[in-house]
Amino acid sequence: MGQRIHFVIDPQGWCYMGLIIFVWLYNTIFIPKVILFPHYEEGNISVVAVLCYYFCSLFCIASLFRASVADPGKLPENPKIPITELERWELCNKCNMMRPKRSHHCSRCGHCVRRMDHHCPWINNCVGEDNHWLFLQLCFYTEILSSYTLILDFCHYYYFLPLKKENWDVFVFRHELALLRISAFMGLIILGGISRLFYTQLMGIFTDTTSIEKMSNCCEDISRPRKPWQQTFSEVFGTHWKILWFIPFRQRQPLRVPYHFADHV
């Protein structure tokens, strides 16, 4: 089942996402140029450190773009509902469409989303059943990349040996201190915010509840028996293979294909 492309026309969301891309682009350009490449050339760090930084950066931007354009689980206009499944559906009082329970109507996007967690302006998209795994990957790799950047900023001044060769004719090296201070400031802000968000998301999967259900506290299934954490994570990521939970370059296949996917297979 291929993943459908989904765009949300929201200028405010585009601004938020543009800010995230700017921070990613800033660190991806200046950190290697100021820290990684010069220290690698002088033998202070290995090529593994350079490659790991670029891999984290690549996985971070890939999960960002995929989460922002992936269909979060928008319901079709005329879903086919078997008689045996009617009790699991309800009528949305905003768009007057039938939807599975645990779905939610997003006022910003204007439609219902299956197992919607929340609408995230930073990816300009809803976080729902079909792209929740990408949003988790985005949180994870953003946290890793921010931590890695802060460690490099710290080591550059307090651990690595001073550079012997410096090209002071280049703008980057003449403003090295200011550039790295900006990088450290952005890293601290993003790390603090994303750590809290990532923790909330993980706890939601462990307890099998969405952010909307936690805030409303009115889900009738809130007292349902809890599933093992391996099962809830596997359902979110669409696979029991844990190594695949960390790879954004793949297609998610639901472990149990429900009937309302039938028109999109």
UniProtKB/TrEMBL annotation:
<dbReference type="GO" id="GO:0005794">
    <property type="term" value="C:Golgi apparatus"/>
</dbReference>
<dbReference type="GO" id="GO:0005783">
    <property type="term" value="C:endoplasmic reticulum"/>
</dbReference>
<feature type="transmembrane region" description="Helical">
    <location>
        <begin position="138"/>
        <end position="159"/>
    </location>
</feature>
<keyword id="KW-0472">Membrane</keyword>
<feature type="transmembrane region" description="Helical">
    <location>
        <begin position="43"/>
        <end position="65"/>
    </location>
</feature>
<keyword id="KW-1133">Transmembrane helix</keyword>
<feature type="transmembrane region" description="Helical">
    <location>
        <begin position="12"/>
        <end position="31"/>
    </location>
</feature>
<keyword id="KW-0812">Transmembrane</keyword>
<protein>
    <recommendedName>
        <fullName>Palmitoyltransferase</fullName>
        <ecNumber>2.3.1.225</ecNumber>
    </recommendedName>
</protein>
<feature type="domain" description="Palmitoyltransferase DHHC">
    <location>
        <begin position="88"/>
        <end position="216"/>
    </location>
</feature>
<feature type="transmembrane region" description="Helical">
    <location>
        <begin position="179"/>
        <end position="199"/>
    </location>
</feature>
<dbReference type="GO" id="GO:0006612">
    <property type="term" value="P:protein targeting to membrane"/>
</dbReference>
<dbReference type="Pfam" id="PF01529">
    <property type="entry name" value="DHHC"/>
</dbReference>
<dbReference type="GO" id="GO:0019706">
    <property type="term" value="F:protein-cysteine S-palmitoyltransferase activity"/>
</dbReference>
<dbReference type="InterPro" id="IPR039859">
    <property type="entry name" value="PFA4/ZDH16/20/ERF2-like"/>
</dbReference>
<dbReference type="GO" id="GO:0016020">
    <property type="term" value="C:membrane"/>
</dbReference>
<keyword id="KW-0808">Transferase</keyword>
<dbReference type="InterPro" id="IPR001594">
    <property type="entry name" value="Palmitoyltrfase_DHHC"/>
</dbReference>
<keyword id="KW-0012">Acyltransferase</keyword>
<comment type="similarity">
    <text>Belongs to the DHHC palmitoyltransferase family.</text>
</comment>
